[in-house]
Each structure stands twice: as structure tokens, then as C-alpha cells.
Amino acid sequence: MSLVSAAPSEYTAPGVEEFWQPIIGDGAWAITRPISLVVVSCGLIIWFLLATTRKKAMVPSRGQMATEAVYGMVRNGIAKDLIGSKEFLRFVPLLFSLFMIILVNNFFGVIPPFSYPTFSRIGFPIALSLIVWVVFHAVGMKKHGFFGYWKSLVPSGLPKGMILPIFFLELITDLFTRPVTLALRLFGNMFAGHILIVLFITGGWYMLTSGGILVIAGGVTWIFALVMTLFEILVEFLQAYVFTLLSALYIGGALADDH
Amino acid sequence: MTGNIAILGYGLSAIGPGIGVGLIFAAYINGVARQPEARGMLQPIAFLGMAITEALAIFGIALAFVFRG
Q: In 3-state terms, what secondary structure has residue A111?
């Protein structure tokens, strides 16, 4: 915000510093804008879900219809397809919570009073992906036993010399690559998308206020900022969908009899 | 002219995942066009492939910020 109001003498591109916005205090224990947005989003989700499902009607209201559509998509489109119709039901609450909290927090990135995608701070996606990581290893070990689970990582029927290298590859994938990519994908998309919008808007403002031929370029830049905002809405929905999809896939993979 | 070479590097490294994501959706559109009833089955696979391919670009942007000096 200070970037826009400052008298532009030389343009400084927005960087990582824009995302550090403490409200109360400073340093590691500061209450920042994203953490307060998470609290707001939880309140909003609880209020919305309670309000739309309290009076269950045979002919659903618009709110109930929306909730049912989202729930149906997570339950049938993601959980049932990827975990399998036998065991998917106990993971639906987790997947639905993940989807709702990511979706609402991502949409905060383009809704004006909030205007900050919570998951553009790396700590938040790490927390979510840690939950998923613990869950899919835990359910896999519960089903196959501790040693059986690690053994099930290697596909059967491999020649003897190949078992050890494949096992290490699968170990790295399961323990490291999966949680890291899960967190980084959400973070990267939200961070890059938001910084792009900030760049278009502050850059456009700089060009509009410098006069001359640059005014036209500034106007075009602001039109592009609008286009990018619309594109961001698509990306934000897609990332919530992809995160839930991959979580379901990892859980389904851990539960499957053979990888 | 001042700046950071990491940003240029990220631009170059985004070419690969860009082509990859394009190929995945080309195959997905082809599949749905040939057999529209397979859409529900193909959609998770397409998005899964996109997510995995895109991870490379995401690593790239993370590293571009890590190594920007």
C-alpha cells in the first residue's frame, strides 16, 4: 500500500518483503495478517456450513445447493475415485476440510478487504502438507504393519538386483518429494500469482503518474492486472482441487495392496 | 543495467514445464474428443500429470528467490 502512495521517483519492483505484514508485535511471535486471515476464514467456513445445512430441505435453498455441490465433488469426484469405494468414507472429513480451508484462503487473495492469499507464506502450506504426510503414512502402516508398509513400496516381480535401488527411490519419493512438492506447489502458485498482480498494479501506477506516452502503457498494464486477477481466481480454485486430489491419491496409494 | 540473473534462469527453466503441461492437456482434450464419456476418468489423471509436471516450475521459482543473492 505504501508502494502506491509514495511519490514515484524510481520504480522498485515488489519483492518478498511485501508479504511480511505484522499487525501486533514483531519478530517470530508477531500476529501477522495471514494468521488473522486464517482465523477469519475458519469463522466464515463454520458459519457458512452451519447456516446452509441447519435446515435441510427436500427442495434445497441456493446455499444448501452450493454446499452439497462442493461436498459431492470432494466425496464422489475425489475421495471415491482415488481411495476406492471401500475405505473412502472415513477420509472425506479430512479432504473436505482441506479443500474448504484452501479454497477460502486462496479466494482471500482477490477479495478486496482481505487481499492476501494466506498460503503465500510458506508456513501455512507446510502445516497442511505435514498433516497429509502423517495421515497417509499412518493409515498405510496401520493397514500393512510397520515393515509390511515399507515392503509394499517396492512393486513385486522385480529382478533381485533392482529391488534395493527402487526401494531407495520410492523411499525418497514418499518421505521427501511428496510432502515438499505438495507444500511448495500451493505456496508457489499463490505467491507468484499475487506478486504478479502487485507488479502489474504498482508498475501501472508508476507509468500512469510519470506522464507522456507511458500513460497509455500504464492503462494497458492495469487492464492486464484485471485479466491476471481473473486468471488468479481460476488458479486458486485449481490449486485447492489439486491439493485435495493429491492428498487423496497419496492416501489411496498407501492403502492399496500393491503399489 | 542491473538485475538478477536468477530471474532470467527461471524464465528459461519455465519453458520445459510449460511444454509438458501443454502436452498433457493436448492429450486430455484428444481423449475427451474421441470418447466424451471417459471425461470423468481422464480428468483426475490429467490434473495429476499437470501437478507433477508443474512441480518443476514451482521448484524453479522457489530456487530463483533462494539464490537471488
A: coil
